[in-house]
């Protein structure tokens, strides 16, 4: 698995979200906070809206 945006997905190389490490999202986005990295749609939208990485646990949202 790779989180590099420049790498193409092949039969042997799969993409992985740089933030949450998911491998099967409906779509991918380029990270705005980490240039050159790829993130899933959820993490990408959160980054763009909140200007920070999406928390992986609900507890972190309340901090």
TrEMBL record:
UniProt GO MF annotations: DNA-binding transcription factor activity, RNA polymerase II-specific; RNA polymerase II cis-regulatory region sequence-specific DNA binding; zinc ion binding
Source organism, top-level taxon: Eukaryota
Residue ranges annotated for the GATA-type domain, each copy included: 15-56
Predominant cellular place of this UniProt entry's protein: nucleus
Annotated keywords: Metal-binding, Nucleus, Zinc, Zinc-finger
Protein localization: Nucleus
Keyword DNA repair: no
GO cellular component, one term: nucleus
Keyword Cytoplasm part of the UniProt annotation: no
GO biological process, one term: positive regulation of transcription by RNA polymerase II
Pfam families xrefs: GATA
Protein name, UniProt field: GATA-type domain-containing protein
Organism: Cylindrobasidium torrendii FP15055 ss-10
């Amino acid at each position: 698995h790779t989180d590099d945006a420049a790498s193409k997905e092949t039969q042997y190389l799969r993409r992985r979200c740089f933030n949450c490490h998911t491998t099967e999202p409906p779509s991918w986005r380029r990270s705005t906070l980490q240039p050159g990295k790829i993130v899933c749609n959820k993490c990408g939208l959160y980054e763009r809206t909140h200007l920070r990485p999406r928390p992986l646990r609900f507890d972190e949202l309340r901090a």
